Model the fold of this input.
Amino acid sequence: MHYLISTLCLAAILFSGCSYENANTIDISGNPSTAELFAPGIISTNLYERDIAISPDGTEIVFTLGDYRQLRRCLVMIKRLGTDWSKKEILSFSGLYDDIEPFFSGDGNKLYFVSNRPIEGDTTRKDYNIWITERTTNGWTNPAPLPSVVNSSQDEFYPSVSRNNNLYFTSVRENGIGSEDIYISRIADGEYSEPVPLDTTINSVTYEFNAYVNPDETLIIFSSYGRKDDMGGGDLYYSLKDSSGVWESAVNMGPGINSEKLDFCPFVDKVRGNLYFTSDRTSNFKMRFENTGELENFANQVLNGTGNIYRIHMEKVIPNYNRKSN
Done:
């Protein structure tokens, strides 16, 4: 695995509490050739971060921020202010319920996300569903759930929407292939169709979840746990469509991306050509603790095993990937 920080800086960070970057300095334009920790000390911190989305114009970053054990999770935004970025703020509609997994529409004016907030006025339902909010001159609208053909009484997770508004998401349903599957609900006559699982080039008898699909639906990146080539806690895989429009057999993205910990929540910033993903990996820094203060410092460092966000240039990840593809 690869990290932005050097070995020498790692030791200093573990035990001195030093900051990685200036307060609001984030560079989303770089194209790292190895997987690097994204915005350490700002976005990637000692708390649990996951599920990043960058607006198409590159002026907004939305991600999930949770406590150490993810007992409470909120959607947080950072906005570009000239050459700097604003402080992190919980989005106006978030903070009360468990809100996760944001995804911007192609024009940046809609935000899909997942929440366990009451749906259809039923306060007894605690399942996760997919919601949508729209941008107005006065901010984001009150979120609305997607139709019941999508939002079942089971959990629905990780929305990804193509250019023609086909919806990909994760769920467990009777027509599934494995323990957890990736589904598609196509738009027909302006309505969502009955969701169906992707075929066995993507889904398997084990767990598939958290899929990013590019706008023209020719690339899918997702996580899976329990496959024979799984490196540990769950890996990222990808598939491309062949010339006949059929998904090819999924490929493990390898040790440059995956670790022995959970690696998941992929997102591709197409404009700048980078893959973002979440990982639970730690520093693996081994030394004897001399006192409880050193142990506390280790536990509160960025690489403490809670989720952080990483990024890498797509051209370093998938052979023959065309960053200008639609």
Remarks:
- Residues 289 and 295 are 6 Å apart (CA to CA).
